[in-house]
Amino acid sequence: MDNPELLTAVFEHAIDGIVVIDEKGKIRMANPAVCDLFGYSQDELAGQSINLLMDPADARHHDNYLDDYRQTRVPVIIGKGRDLKGRKKDGSIFPFRLAVSEFTNKCQTYYAGIVHDLSKQKQAELSLDHEQNLNQVKTRLLSMASHELRSPLSRVQLSASLIERYYERLDKDKIIGHLRKIKIAVDDMTASLNDFLSIERIEAGNIKADNKVFDLALFASDLTEEMQQQARAGIQIKYTSTADNTTVCLDQTLLRHCLVNLLSNAIKYSKETGAIEFTTDISATNCIITVKDEGIGIPEQDQQYIFEPFFRAANAIDIQGTGLGLNIVKNYVQLMGGEITFKSREQIGTSFTLSFRQ
């Protein structure tokens, strides 16, 4: 095409960016689309190394390509469809697809690169992946809900039927016993439903921490009394505060959910009798909360998966639970800026530690 004005118009008005560099990697021409995309003017780009527009990792690869070409004359940078990361003038990084061709003008070799911004495409892919993950979570939640709610509902129905059918013949203690079973079953269903709702909100990114100052010792003492009422007769929860200062800045609602889950697990997986140690320790820089039991422990081969959603350890398969609790606890702890760790030995017990910087 022998029409310089038309070629100039195409260069100036192309939707994708077009940049021309020489054999040394210096920018000789850049169209307005490149300038808009990277945030530079044409004057700012002229004569600059093409590395200015690249993520440091990609820039190193490009330098290697140029060195190889100078030595071998094999055009290794030629090609289309290479996905790279660009660096804008403000320092932000974004994805783009690069196609490069080689041409010669007046005995000089140049490279023309076509730059196609992938930001919207990558965002759409991420949104699609997120939506697919949410759908998978919802499907598993529905399946788990139908399984986990069926058992406590059956217990409620059985106890209620026995009370109704044999009310006149049952003594007071037996009636109270059946009512207690109904209450426990309702508590189990409530806990399961709370787990289902929490995991869906976490996956959707709808939970934020609202950290505020409160008295942790008073909070933990009240929680201990509440959880002790739910424990079996042979289980004793011992709470200890090992610091003079008892105030912290955390989200009470999220922290309560974490500790209720850990204490409930300690009760659930403890043997018929045993002590559960619940301690809080606050220093000038850290808040450490520990829940330690003498229960069945976590098999060593299962410990790496214990925080994954829906995971149940091999020795807990026959014990009611959703497999969501510890995943929720980990997410809530991270939302509050902390971390959770644990130590466990099978048939010896488990200790979970929550650590927060103050």
Helix content: 40-55%
Task: Return Rg in Å.
Answer: 32 Å
| CATH hierarchy, class of the largest domain | Alpha Beta
What's the total helix number?
Answer: 9
Helix vs. strand class? alpha+beta
Layout of helices and strands, plus pairs?
Elements: H1 4-13, E1 17-22, E2 27-30, H2 32-38, H3 42-45, H4 56-72, E3 79-87, E4 93-105, E5 108-117, H5 119-166, H6 172-203, E6 212-215, H7 216-230, E7 235-241, E8 247-250, H8 252-269, E9 274-282, E10 286-292, H9 325-335, E11 338-345, E12 349-357
Keywords:
9 helices, 3 domains, five-stranded antiparallel sheet, Beta-Lactamase, Helix Hairpins, 358 residues, five-stranded mixed sheet, Heat Shock Protein 90, 45% helix, single chain, elongated, alpha+beta
Account of the protein in words:
With 358 residues, the protein is of the alpha+beta class. It folds into 3 domains: 4-117, Beta-Lactamase, CATH 3.30.450; 123-203, Orthogonal Bundle (Helix Hairpins), CATH 1.10.287.130; 212-357, Histidine kinase-like ATPase, C-terminal domain (Heat Shock Protein 90). 45% of the residues lie in helices and 25% in strands. The protein has helices at 4-13, 32-38, 42-45, 56-72, 119-166, 172-203, 216-230, 252-269, 325-335, and strands spanning 17-22, 27-30, 79-87, 93-105, 108-117, 212-215, 235-241, 247-250, 274-282, 286-292, 338-345, 349-357. A 5-stranded antiparallel β-sheet has the order 2-1-5-4-3. A hairpin with a 3-residue loop joins strand 11 (338-345) and strand 12. Helix 5 runs antiparallel to helix 6, helix 6 (172-203) crosses helix 9 and helix 8 runs antiparallel to helix 9. The termini are far apart. The mean pLDDT is 83.
